[in-house]
What we know:
There is one protein chain. By secondary structure, this protein is α+β, with helices and mostly antiparallel strands. The chain has helices at 3-12, 17-39, 57-73, 82-86, 107-111, 182-199, 210-218, 232-235, 238-244, 270-276; strands at 45-47, 54-56, 78-81, 98-105, 118-125, 128-136, 141-146, 150-153, 156-157, 171-174, 203-205, 224-228, 248-250, 263-267. The strands form three sheets. Strands 3-4-5-6-7-8-9 form a seven-stranded mixed β-sheet, sandwiched between helices. Strands 11-10-12-14-13 form a five-stranded mixed β-sheet, sandwiched between helices. A two-stranded antiparallel ribbon has the order 1-2. Strand 10 (171-174), helix 6 and strand 11 form a beta-alpha-beta unit. Helix 2 packs antiparallel against helix 3. The N and C termini lie far apart (40 Å). The structure holds L-MYO-inositol-1-phosphate.
Amino acid sequence: MSLQECLQKLASKQDCRLHYVLTAINIANNAGNIIKDCYHQVKTVSTKDCATDLVTDTDKLVEKLIFSSLKTEFPSHKFIGEESVSNGESSELSLEPTWIVDPIDGTTNFVHRNPYVAVSIGLVINKKSEVGVVYAPILNDLYVAVKNEGAYLNGQRLKIVNPPSSLSNSLIAFEWGADRDSDVLALKSRNLLDIMQKHQVRGMRSTGSAALNMCMVACSSLDLYFEWGPHCWDMAASNLMVEEAGGFNTTTLGCDFDLMGRTIISAACKNIIEEIVPTLTQIPTRRDDE
Ligand code: LIP
C-alpha cells in the first residue's frame, strides 16, 4: 500500500486522523521550505543549556509558524515544542491530543550546512503517537506514519526485511548529544568502546539527528540507534515510523519505549536489543516530565 492508498483508506473510513496527517504534511512542507531558504544563509546562533547546545533564529521562527498553523486548525489540542519548552513552557504530557514538535532536529548540522536536518511533527493521544511526520528538506525525504496504517518514505511503504542476525552483522548509530561534562563523555566513550570490542559491529554512525536516525532504522539504512538524552520532540514522530515499519523501540534498559524518558534504543529486531542492553553502562538522564 502506498501513502496515497493509506490516505484514501482513512478517507473512506472517515477517520479523523486524515485531517491530522494532511495538516501535518502541509505544515512540514512549509517549514521545510523555510529551512531550505535559510540553509546557506548566515545564521543568528545562540546557546541554551551549554555552549554546544545551539539554537538559531530559524528554529524559533519555524516553531512559531508551525504552532500558529496547528493552533488555528486544532485550537483544543495541546502543544509541546523544543523552543517553547526552552523558553519556560511546560513539557507536561497529558492524555489530551498533543502536538509535539522539533522545528529543526539537527540544529548543529543546520548551522554547519550539514544536510542531516529535519522538521519533526508528532501527534500524541493518550500518551501514544498516532501520527508522525518527519521532513528532511535538504535530503528531500518525507517520512509519514499513522498508527496501525503503516510508515511511508516519499509515498512508498516502509517494511523492515531481513534484519541482522546479530550486532556483528549490524550498522548502528549513536549520538554524543550536547553535554560536554567529562564524566558523561567518559561514560559514553566507554559504552562505544565496549560495544565495538564485544560485538564487533560493522560500523557506528552519528548523524546529529535522533529523528533521522530512527527514520533510518525504519527504512533499513540503520539496524540500531541508541542514545541517552533525546527529548520527546526528537522522538514523538519517528518512534511511530520505526514501529509501523516493523521495528522496535525500547529504553536503554530494554524496557517499553518511554517518550518522556530521554533514553532510546530503536532497532530492526529484538535480538540485537537483547544483545546490546547487557553491554551498556547506564547514564543518568533527567526526564522531560520531571
Ligand atoms: C538533537 C538530537 C540529537 C542529540 C543532539 C540534539 P536538536 O536535537 O536530535 O539526538 O544528540 O544533541 O539534541 O537539538 O538538534 O533539535
